[in-house]
Specification:
This protein has helices spanning about 5-25, 40-65, 70-95, 105-125, 135-160; strands spanning about 35, 40. Helices cover about 75% and strands about 0% of the residues.
């Protein structure tokens, strides 16, 4: 796939994330229904988070072992993580639209981390601006990914009432 086509496909996915977040926020589609013991918006968030938690370390390890397969691995990384970000955005938008708004401390931190990962990943993949040096952007992207793992752990422990 040519980079220009991929750029527009990724851009459309990012727009879809924003659209689904707005739809969830205004509850035009209700993701708050129960599915088993938990609400649907929690299930989609867990699916997205588990995917990222498993796929990112696998991507990191495989890209070092299989540099010839890097193009395919990168596509899986980009599209899989964007779809996961979409699922997490549905959860976040559903949570911030609840009344009264629940405690969002670690959730806000986690969502900000996801936004930064998405932005730095986009810049890293498509080299949008000459002002952003690739090595600095890559360092920020990897550092924020490590922050994701720390914050998701804290978020889970907070959610189940351990901390």
């Amino acid at each position: 796939m040519k980079t220009e086509k991929e750029f527009w496909l990724v851009t459309m996915l990012i727009v879809a994330v924003a659209v689904f977040a707005v739809v969830a926020y205004f509850r035009w589609l209700n993701f708050g229904f129960l599915l088993g013991p938990y609400r649907m918006n929690h299930w989609v968030s867990w699916i997205g988070s588990i995917y990222i938690a498993l796929a990112v370390p696998v991507f990191s390890a495989l890209r070092r072992r299989s540099p010839l397969k890097m193009r395919a691995l990168l596509r899986i990384h980009v599209y899989g993580n964007l779809i996961s970000f979409l699922l997490i955005s549905i959860h976040f938008a559903s949570q911030v639209s609840r009344q009264p708004i629940p405690d969002l401390g670690t959730g806000i931190a986690l969502y900000v981390v996801m936004l930064i990962l998405t932005i730095t990943g986009f810049f890293n993949r498509f080299r949008i601006s000459a002002l952003v040096k690739p090595q600095n952007n890559r360092f920020l992207h990897v550092s924020v990914a490590i922050s994701f793992f720390i914050i998701i752990g804290i978020h889970i422990l907070h959610g189940i009432g351990i901390i």
